[in-house]
Write a structure and sequence with these properties.
Structural class: mainly alpha
Radius of gyration: 35 Å
Helix content: 55-70%
CATH superfamily of one domain: Tetratricopeptide repeat domain
CATH topology of one domain: Serine Threonine Protein Phosphatase 5, Tetratricopeptide repeat
Strand content: under 5%
Distance between the termini: 110 Å
Number of helices: 18
Length: 382
Amino acid sequence: MEFDLSWIVLGLPVAFALGWLASRLDLRQLRQDSRRAPKAYFKGLNYLLNEQQDQAIDAFIEAVQNDPDTTELHFALGNLFRRRGEYNRAVRVHEHLLSRGDLSRGDRERAQHALALDFLKAGLLDRAEDALRRLEGTPFEAQARLALLAIYERSRDWPQATEIARRMQAAHQGDFGTRQAHYLCEQALAHTAHGELDAAQSLLLQAVTAAPQAGRARIELARLHQRRGDARAALRVLHELAGVAPAALPLAAPLLVEAAAATGQESEAHTLLTRQYQELPSLDLLDAIVALEGGGATPARDWYLRHLEREPSLVAATRWLAGETLSQPQAQPKVQRALEHASRPLTRYRCAACGFEARQHFWQCPGCQSWDSYPARRVEEL
């Protein structure tokens, strides 16, 4: 049988025409798709820049529907949902990303981090903890550890917080020695509340070692010694405090007076307080000095007058005036009450981070949760 070459000659133009037609159709479809997706994307971006989040979400949803494989659009959509407080929808977007088998390792880690943020913002701390722990060994590890630290602090899980802080210290992510000392002090206070004084003392000694220059551990240790009836040990620890963290001594001034009175070492305590007061005047130190003197060589009113000579103080003026006799004695109680009312806000402590004020000193601010943000000085002295 002979092969007819005429069929090949006739078939080649037909095949070429069909191929050209198919390529044109594919190209047209590709152009339509590429025009549709960017248009929706840029529309959403324009809405976002104009802070029209509802319209931006609708535009991004349209873009995602046109091109379901676009990961960046999914991330943008998930972040928008989170910012709007629609955490369930944000979680669904990021979980959908994680379920894709074609996702690159970098995008998978990014989606895992975004999912952890969704859970954190939603207040689902257990699920956030699990999601954050999956970020160990990724570029998001440092951020994940900080978030875990915040979770454990909020839930007062001090052992877990201590472990995370140690990891961050070992990874050179910052100095967490003082933070670890706070965690140990918190655990010690819990043991003290249950009468487990030996365990509390062991933790406080560890805290002193973890942060030798921090004041809290020594103050708590002195309180523990005083509670156990060992005033001499309490006084010894407070003398150490004055040497390593003198700025914190005003917080322990009343305890120092109590321990000195119990051991008969008022003179030594008076010398210590006076020396510290000369270097850094403080109303708490001044009150402790007056309490130790008890109307001795220098009357209390003279101490407050000396303080007024060094710096203006409505609190000191009010206490000085309490012993002064006015020309109209019947007006004395009213004037005294008015001054005490006016000076009371000045005796509070104020957080340097958020401005939250409180009558008592806090090592961790109840408002912003910052550590060591309360100076050991009253509002009037700042």
